[in-house]
């Protein structure tokens, strides 16, 4: 049996109790996903990005060099043992890392409107049309997230779901939020479908861009995401959502959010470009959601236009 050492573990990861039995769900060059009744644990080779349910392992070569397949996984007090081939030890003594976003916010000093427009431009120019942009198109996100109606959406199901979600946030209505979420969860291929990445980005946007405008609606959205995800999307996406609603993100996501709220513009652009390289579409899909959520948060701080009475000026 080959013995490997844990280099670092997410301080927010819930490790199953000793004696728990799990199973490998997928194996990739850089990581292994292990599923138990408690959720997902991902073993990541050293030097890769941190994730909130991840354990960094001292491993130079890739996981595909092991003949692991879909083997049984056993949990011990200080180790995870995969079949008869491999053990990762030192879980209790290795260092800890955090995926919580924290920064000294420059809200008030940073004008979020041009930053959101810059993010949308970067998304539209990313040549990633196979993700969420293939469903929602390249609308002016600021106008889309306003309180006005967009007549061209009559027959477009996915944009309608986005508009429903926006309306639910602006009106703080759980039923509309839920309908929008259910229309987007599981949309698109991959281990984390485009609709899910968009939703997590959207929630992050309304939380990190003028959060006081959408505080109660954001809580409702988080609750509906957690409740609906297990029935409508993939096991990997469920895990990202479970942690994401607590403000725990993939390392590149956290770095982008920090730079958006408190970094110089060029730093933000650099972090955005790094995030856009994540997965086939995941990074861009998250960013598109963040842009829509951010514009929704700004719109929520703008009072709705008063309807004029027909006799008002008579």
Protein described:
By secondary structure, the protein is of the alpha/beta class. It contains 11 helices and 9 strands. The chain has an 8-stranded mixed β-barrel with strand order 1-5-4-3-2-6-7-8. Helix 6 runs parallel beside helix 8 and helix 9 runs antiparallel to helix 10. The longest helix is centred in the C-terminal third of the chain and has 19 residues. It is elongated and about 65 Å long. It starts with a strand and ends in a 14-residue tail after the last helix. The C terminus is likely disordered.
Whole-angstrom Rg = 21 Å
Distance linking N and C termini:
88 Å
Structural class: alpha/beta
Global outline: elongated
Distinct helical segment count: 11
Low-confidence stretches: 307-314
Largest beta sheet: what is the strand line-up? 1-5-4-3-2-6-7-8
**Main sheet properties:** 8 strands, mixed, barrel
Overall mean confidence score, pLDDT: 89
Q: Count every beta strand, where a strand is a DSSP E run of 2 or more residues.
A: 9
Q: Which range does the strand content fall in?
A: 15-25%
């Amino acid at each position: 049996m080959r013995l490997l050492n844990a280099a670092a573990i997410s301080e927010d990861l819930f490790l199953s109790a000793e004696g728990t039995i799990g199973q490998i769900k997928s194996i990739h060059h850089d990581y292994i996903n292990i599923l138990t009744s408690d959720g997902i644990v991902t073993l990541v080779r050293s030097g890769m990005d941190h994730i909130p349910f991840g354990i960094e392992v001292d491993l130079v070569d890739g996981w595909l060099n092991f003949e692991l397949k879909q083997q049984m996984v056993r949990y011990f007090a200080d180790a995870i043992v995969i079949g008869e081939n491999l053990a990762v030890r030192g879980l209790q003594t290795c260092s800890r890392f955090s995926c919580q976003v924290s920064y000294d916010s420059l809200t008030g000093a940073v004008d979020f409107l041009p930053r959101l427009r810059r993010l949308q431009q970067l998304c539209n120019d990313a040549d990633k049309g196979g993700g969420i942009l293939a469903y929602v198109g390249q609308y002016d996100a600021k106008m889309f997230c306003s309180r006005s109606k967009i007549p061209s959406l009559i027959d477009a199901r996915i944009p309608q779901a986005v508009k429903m979600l926006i309306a639910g946030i602006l009106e703080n209505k759980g039923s509309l939020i839920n309908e929008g979420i259910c229309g987007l969860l599981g949309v698109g291929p991959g281990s984390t479908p485009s609709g899910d990445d968009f939703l997590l980005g959207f929630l992050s946007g309304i939380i990190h861009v003028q959060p006081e405008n959408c505080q109660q609606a954001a809580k409702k959205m988080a609750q509906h995401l957690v409740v609906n995800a297990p029935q409508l999307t993939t096991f990997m996406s469920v895990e990202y959502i479970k942690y994401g609603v607590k403000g725990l993100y993939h390392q590149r996501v956290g770095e982008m959010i920090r730079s958006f709220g408190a970094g110089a513009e060029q730093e933000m652009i650099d972090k955005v470009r790094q995030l856009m390289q994540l997965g086939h579409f995941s990074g861009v899909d998250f960013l598109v959601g963040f842009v829509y959520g951010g514009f929704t948060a700004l719109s929520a701080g703008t009072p709705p236009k008063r309807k004029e009475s027909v006799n008002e000026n008579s």
